[in-house]
Specification:
The complex is a heterodimer.
Chain A: E1 3-8, E2 11-16, H1 23-30, E3 50-52, E4 55-57, E5 72-74, H2 89-97, H3 106-122, H4 129-133, H5 144-156
Parallel strand pairs in A: 1-5
Antiparallel strand pairs in A: 1-2, 3-4, 3-5
Chain B: E1 21-26, E2 33-37, H1 53-56, H2 59-65, E3 73-78, E4 84-88, H3 97-109, E5 116-120, H4 138-165, E6 173-175, E7 178-181, E8 185-188, H5 189-196, E9 202-207, H6 226-231, E10 246-251, E11 259-263, H7 266-270, E12 275-281, E13 284-289, H8 292-301, E14 304-307, H9 316-326, E15 338-345, E16 348-349, E17 357-363, E18 366-371, H10 376-387, E19 394-398, H11 412-424, E20 428-431, H12 434-439, E21 443-444, E22 447-456, E23 459-470, H13 478-485, H14 496-504, E24 513-521, H15 535-552, H16 557-564, H17 568-580, E25 591-600, E26 603-612, H18 615-618, E27 630-639, H19 646-666, E28 671-672, E29 675-676, E30 695-700, H20 715-731, E31 737-738
Parallel strand pairs in B: 4-5, 10-20, 15-31, 18-19, 23-24, 27-30
Antiparallel strand pairs in B: 1-2, 1-9, 2-3, 3-4, 6-7, 7-8, 10-13, 11-14, 12-13, 15-22, 16-21, 17-18, 17-20, 22-23, 25-26, 26-27, 28-29
Classes of the chains: A alpha+beta, B alpha+beta.
């Protein structure tokens, strides 16, 4: 079985896996990182959303061979460390708004939110309704209005 | 809404000795364990003739009254570290009952909420019917028993401290987990737990805290599992670390409930990378491998010849014909004026985001199962029967669920996991692919609802509704309840689903004589009680006709409802949404307000929405999605009697609205040639961010009755209907076929063979 090396939540990791094993299963089934969830396996529901070098990426659609040793994968478990705190401001906002219901989609929602805010900040502009409308993450509990509120609030502290 | 003395039936649990005095137990345990029976007091009075069965007894009453013979106790344990433990015999699937339960205990025991640990109880057959999560019944049925157990714990802790300090109990207080006595003596409840314990089990009486002294119940509180959820630490079934429970998936048939004929390449599949086992089971061909990625590859590579399923050759049109043929007559046209309509509601999926899944470890002499189950006793009994094991040899752990919407009343994945584990002799972690979940999973059955309202002048004479539906599978335990109780109900000899229908439907308006009947046909589909079951469809049909009748009488839709609602509590929620939503304000052409009402679960709800049906909104470009009309504003008002956690209730009502928007506008399954076309969240259009109302207000009415009604599903029906009514008013055409975009297929269907799509490889191209 080939070896693959990349950075995961701040640490260099090496795993044995088939070249085309999708990163989601490398994380969940081989490394035991269960924050990213399976919701569709075809990059539609976005429940597995994590960060690749700080941007939103979906591990269910990334063969592990595509990762370079310098690529940094951040899952929800590693998000707080990116700001050197117990919780990322977006997670704090999620708690303040009590966004989650069942919680299954929420790690993916938060990772999407953080990447979105980073992007609009890079573009030096505020978050718009269109940005929020463009979020594709499914929440079958229907927490969408609180997701929107939390993103706006979390952005203030990012 | 109530035609009987509420106190005669609303007490669910330990028998009241007085208005607030109840009996419970202290158990013989080393540390303090207080208990109460999860048993309702005398059931509904069924002796008053009334046209409205739900006034005498509704589904909630049945579910609570059904548990009368149970001897099961629920227990509140005070631990030596000062925490309090409680194993809730219900499933938490996002509805917030672990939080509201912790609040009940914190309130009555006098302990900080953070120190209450609520877990989900394993399947406990001794609870009989009392471990079923459904019908928005949890808080309704556990409100008193949980508080009684907590109050007994409090009382014992105070007595233990009083004995130790040789002080009168009356001079002691218990707050924030600390008992304080004369001379400022203090002791944490953890240090008192052993002294407060009993050497023998005894029955004790206790007073419950009066409502006016509540400091926790009725105050908004964040979820107790919120931190776990936002950090990814919350564990769902597939996240559990069960040794050797390797990923397992099933290659499924191309048509609904098809069966395996033969498999032509088993040896080749068995030699695929990571694959440990391949075995034919009753629902397909199961594959166990080191990763789910390898399972998906193996499922796609299997060459299976399939036998016919249970809906072979059927399509939307053929099922519609079946429904029309099964429709009960509405009766001859009345001699007076009337309004009438026939409404079609398409198949809908109750898939949660967490797919069907279960872990099973079956050995020759025992079995252990982990799954999110709303009817775990039924599951345990069914699994024991399937395996031929005694009930005591089967353990069923109820895990935290990633949504349910009725889906987790069933245990399809658990039964499969058990079958695979037994056949291969190894533990399995079984997961349905999203395509499986959508195509072979449970659905809300397709239905038609025909209704007629007869009137004369300003008086409504009668309301008649004939609801005809593909059969709803109620085999998860409600059937047992009904069997047990049917003889006691004033409805004669009718079937389970008709009984469920009659118990869940009511007529809130003063519409003279009324008659609602259910007729079912075709048991060939995998159906179930999707959130709010029959009510979204039945209510949507009724409210659309109410709008039509109001127009016929030249009355405003809100004023008409206001004038015809039968009680003040109903009128109050309607008035509230009209006021907060600024009913009747001037709106641009192509946009409109809609208003609707629904009552159920001893609770009332009203919804007002504003809907934008203008082309520039309907045709907004969204990749691989349905845009359609947009609800731009929504106001929901609910009266649930007493909201234990208003914040949780608000979340539930928001979710109900999202469901209602989807049911009316976008979400349906298309049946073609014996299978559903939908295989993805980008095929089945549940509400997405681009459909979400930018403006939303949920109003929770002041605690009226003082006793919690049901809430988890309450808002779906009125939301569905309000959006439909707004659509009718915005477009000038009353919609009759739901969801309104059903006739536009907005995606390219995925192949049915192989049954699951390939995993994409272009993830790096979509990093953003």
């Amino acid at each position: 079985m080939p070896e693959h090396t990349f950075r995961l939540n701040g640490e260099q990791v090496t795993v044995e896996a088939a070249d085309d094993e999708r990163l989601l299963w490398v994380l969940r089934d081989i490394l035991g990182i269960t924050g990213p969830k399976y919701g569709c396996g075809i990059n539609v529901c976005k429940a597995c959303t994590s960060h690749l070098n700080g941007k939103a990426a979906n591990p269910c659609a990334i063969p592990v061979r595509d990762l370079r040793p310098s690529d940094e994968i951040t899952t929800i478990e590693g998000l707080p460390a990116t700001v050197g705190a117990d919780l990322h401001p977006m997670q704090e906002a999620w708690l303040d708004q009590d966004v989650a219901q069942c919680g299954y989609c929420q790690p993916g929602q938060i990772m999407t939110a953080v990447a979105l805010v980073r992007r609009v900040k890079e573009e030096n502009r505020p978050i718009t309704e269109a940005d929020l409308d463009g979020i594709r993450n499914i929440c079958r509990c229907g927490t969408y209005p609180r997701v929107r509120e939390a993103i706006r609030a979390g952005a203030e502290n990012m | 809404m109530t035609g009987t003395d509420p106190s005669a039936r609303r007490h669910t649990g330990p028998a009241p000795l007085g208005r607030r005095r109840f009996l419970g137990y202290v158990l013989a345990t080393p540390t303090l364990t207080a208990a109460a029976e999860l048993v309702p007091a005398p059931g509904a009075r069924a002796d008053i003739p009334s046209p409205e069965i739900t006034e005498l007894i509704d589904l909630n009453d049945v579910m609570t009254a059904a548990a009368l013979p149970t001897s099961g106790l629920i227990t509140v344990e005070v631990n030596k570290d000062g925490t309090v433990s409680f194993a809730l015999p219900r499933a938490e699937v996002g509805q917030g009952i672990t939080t509201s339960t912790a609040m009940l205990i914190a309130e009555e025991l006098g302990v900080p909420l953070e120190r209450v640990r609520v877990t989900l109880a394993d399947a406990r057959p001794e609870l009989l019917f009392n471990q079923l999560t459904g019908g928005s019944n949890t808080t309704f049925s556990t409100y008193t028993p949980i508080r009684v157990a907590a109050a007994i714990a409090r009382s014992r802790l105070l007595q233990a401290a009083a004995a130790e300090w040789r002080a009168p109990v009356g001079e002691l207080t218990l707050e924030a987990g600390v008992v304080t006595g004369p001379g400022d003596r203090r002791a944490g409840i953890g240090t008192l737990s052993e002294k407060a314990a009993s050497v023998r089990t005894e029955q004790v009486a206790v007073d419950l805290k009066p409502r006016e002294r509540f400091t926790v119940i009725g105050k908004p509180h964040g979820r107790v599992d919120a931190l776990a959820a936002v950090t990814g630490r919350k564990k769902f079934t597939l996240d559990l670390d069960v040794p050797d429970a390797m990923p397992t998936m099933v290659c499924r048939p191309p048509t609904i409930n098809g069966k395996v004929g033969s498999v032509s390449n088993l040896p080749a599949i068995r030699s695929m990378p990571g694959v440990t086992d391949v075995v034919v089971i009753s629902t397909g061909v199961a594959v166990r491998a080191a990763t789910f990625g390898q399972c998906i590859d193996a499922v796609r590579a299997l060459k299976v010849s399939w036998r016919a399923g249970s809906a072979e050759g059927k399509s939307d049109d053929s099922v519609l014909e079946e429904l029309r043929a099964a429709e009960l007559p509405l009766g001859p046209p009345p001699p007076t004026p009337s309004v009438e309509g026939r409404f079609t509601f398409r198949f809908r999926s109750n898939s949660a985001l967490e797919p069907n899944c279960a872990i099973a470890d079956v050995r020759p002499d025992r079995a252990e199962i982990w799954s999110s189950l709303k009817a775990p006793i039924v599951a345990r009994e069914a699994i024991a029967a399937k395996l031929g094991l005694p009930l005591r040899s089967v353990t069923v752990h109820v895990t935290e669920g990633g949504g349910s919407f009725g889906r987790k009343l069933f245990f399809d994945a658990a039964l499969e996991a058990v079958e695979v584990s037994r056949k291969i002799g190894k533990p399995v972690r079984l997961m349905w692919h999203r395509a499986d979940d959508s195509r072979q999973g449970r659905t809300h059955p397709m239905a038609i609802s025909r209704a007629r309202i007869a009137y004369l002048g300003d008086t409504v004479l009668s309301y008649t509704q004939r609801h005809t539906s593909v059969s709803t599978d109620l085999s998860h335990g409600l059937g047992e309840i009904f069997t047990a109780l049917a003889a006691r109900l004033p409805v004669g000899d009718i079937g389970f689903s008709e009984l469920f229908f009659q118990l869940s439907q009511s007529m809130p308006y003063d519409f003279g004589s009324n008659s609602r009947l259910l007729s079912e046909t075709d048991k060939g589909f995998n159906t179930g009680s999707m959130r709010n079951v029959y009510s979204p469809d039945v209510t949507c049909a009724r409210e659309l006709l109410v709008d039509r009748l109001a127009a016929r009488m030249n009355k405003d839709p809100y004023r008409f409802r206001h004038d015809f609602l039968r009680d003040d509590r109903s009128r109050a929620v309607l008035d509230k949404v009209a006021e907060v939503g600024n009913w009747g304000r001037s709106m641009p052409a192509g946009t409109a307000q809609g208003i609707a009402f629904h009552s159920e679960y001893h609770a009332a709800s009203a919804v007002l929405v504003e809907l934008d049906c203008r082309p520039e909104t309907v045709n907004r470009p969204v990749r691989d999605g349905v845009t359609g009309p947009r609800v731009t504003k929504a106001v929901i008002a609910v009266d649930v009697g007493l909201a234990v956690n208003p914040r949780g209730l608000e979340a539930q009502m928001t979710g109900c609205l999202m469901d209602g928007i989807a049911l009316t506008l976008t979400s349906s399954l298309h049946l073609r040639d014996g299978h559903f076309l939908e295989a993805s969240w980008d095929n089945y259009f549940y509400t997405r961010q681009w459909n979400t109302p930018p403006e939303l207000k949920v109003v929770i009415m002041p605690a009226g009755t003082g006793e919690p009604g049901g809430a988890g599903e309450l808002g779906v029906a009125a939301s569905t209907a309000a959006v439909a009514c707004a659509y009718g008013r915005a477009t000038g055409v009353m919609p009759t076929d739901f969801p309104i975009n059903h006739h536009t297929l907005s995606f390219t269907p995925k192949p049915t063979t192989p049954p699951v799509p390939a995993s994409p490889t272009d993830g790096l191209d979509h990093v953003h």
